Amino acid sequence: MAAEGGGAKPVAQSRMENFRKVRTSEEESPLPFPDLPPDVVEMKVKEGSKIRNLMNFAMAQMELKGSRQIVFSGCGRAVTKTITCVEIMKRKLGGLHQVTKIRYKTLLEVWENQDPLPGGPAQNLTVHKNVPSICILLSRDPLDPNQTGYQPPEPRHGLGTQLGEAGEDTSGSTAKGLKRPLPPPRQELLTKKLQVQVPDSLRGSGTTDCQPDHHH
What we know:
Layout: H1 2-6, H2 8-16, E1 19-26, E2 41-44, H3 51-64, E3 69-75, H4 79-93, E4 97-113, E5 122-139, E6 150-151, H5 159-166, H6 172-175, H7 187-193, E7 207-215
Parallel strand pairs: 2-3
Antiparallel strand pairs: 1-4, 3-5, 4-5, 4-6, 5-7
Helix pairs in contact: 3-4, 4-5
């Protein structure tokens, strides 16, 4: 009986090994913030994004181009990196109002069969994956403090020390303008600073729905 029940699993695994992910697309959805200006900058954080590159562009928008608001968004494994970027910007600029929204987003993955049956049609597998997503609005201008997810600006005292913890050197006279590289994000710092209540419906790694596509 044990041999019978365990015989099918290796076969299923071997069949899945024949598929290779060829494309991933993200479901387009409007930002969950009302009354945003049409030219607001959205920083779409990906799992492979470099934090320093993201922050250089975002800081240029806020300091050089005078943007009043900016949005950071990320989903799946990029959520933690999104929060890290927000915390660094809040320490660099100070006085920023914040609104955080958490929701689900759908990713579409297309997997191609690398070993189709001889003479048979090509077969692709489409995977609909629901993953947690986070959108954070930072604003120089006051926001409605009664809306869900609002956080007021943090006090500016001790700003230099906090910047050092986030990986940026602010002691100009001693460091002579040099910057230390950013360390990995501190989970305890992120948890403490980002006071967001995640609904039970959004906890977990998400759900996956697979649909085969047949192309003749």
